[in-house]
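Example record

The entry below shows one chain as it appears in the dataset: sequence first, then structure tokens.
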Amino acid sequence: MRELIVDSFAGGGGASTGIEMALGRSPDIAINHDATALAMHEVNHPGTLHLTEDVWNVDPYAATGGRPVGLAWFSPDCKHFSKAKGGKPVSKNIRGLAWVVVHWANTVKPRVIILENVEEFQTWGPAAPEELNDFHKRAFTVLGIVGGGIYNAPFSWDSVYWAPNAIGVSWFKSLATYDFRDLTRFVLLCHEARIRGEISSLAPQYLRIMLHQRGVEGGMARRHPNLEEALAEWRAEFPADHPLVYRDPIAESAQ
């Protein structure tokens, strides 16, 4: 299967043209929230799939259809880091854009990742916001309940992945159902808070927990069912007479 090429933060198509010159073909997918920029990109690369979306609203797995990604190219805004910016950083949201690279790396694991930026970008790293937004508060409430209190939870604050609508932590404790119930709590709380919770392997004894903001409406990348909605979907797929549903053999024999 041919590997995909993805150009995120795609502008008029300069980087994509360079990719085409180097690899002999245009990117398969280009992403930018700016419709004007993508319209120019489409003129230069008509065979590319263009997604006019905020990079954080694009589900990497859905966008790629589960196909392997050979190259993921990212050119996040450099104004926060450039020598020419002058004075105070423009926006913490701009500084946090590069976290989407980590999100793609965790989700679809591209074979090659290239991040284009100015040399000062080497100073980039975790930066907590001056004030937590509503999503951050809900996300850390979930982690605190699962971890036995937010300051007892098994993760390091120095390694928190911050974004306006996403939080990531390196969790150094196992999760299970139901005897230790941490996993059960995590799943149920994420549904109640309409937060997309994702758990992946990070290293031996370490898990990567990602929490993404979701809402009530929209497509798969925007909404999240609450607990009642999720249970209704579950019961529709696995009704009471499904072979997988546990039945007490003693109670059944007494009937």
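Notes for this example: The chain has two domains: 4-123, 134-237. The longest strand covers residues 195-203.
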